[in-house]
Amino acid sequence: SKHRRTHTGEKPFRCFRCGKSFNVSSNLYRHQRGHGEAAPEKPRGVPYRCEECGKSFGRNKELAAHRRLHAGEPPFRCGDCG
């Protein structure tokens, strides 16, 4: 999560022009405008990484489902029976 990255120092969003990294995509977007781009490139970071195996995900809920596999649980839960 964004908050977690403030503690870890992780900066997964990188400017393709100069290589500078940011911890949130909105800061990268603002930075890219400074390069004079009319429409800055969308960030390509995958900020959600499994600490156990290193696999990365674009959404936190995808990482949560993946972590359940490591725990031996089904990756998704049925809304009716749990």
From TrEMBL:
Keywords: Metal-binding, Repeat, Zinc, Zinc-finger
The UniProt record lists the keyword Transmembrane helix: no
C2H2-type domain location: 13-40, 48-75
SUPFAM superfamilies membership: beta-beta-alpha zinc fingers
Any one Gene Ontology molecular-function term assigned to this protein's record: RNA polymerase II cis-regulatory region sequence-specific DNA binding
Record-linked Gene3D superfamilies: Classic Zinc Finger
Signal peptide location: none
The name this protein goes by in its record: ZN724 protein
The encoding gene: Znf724
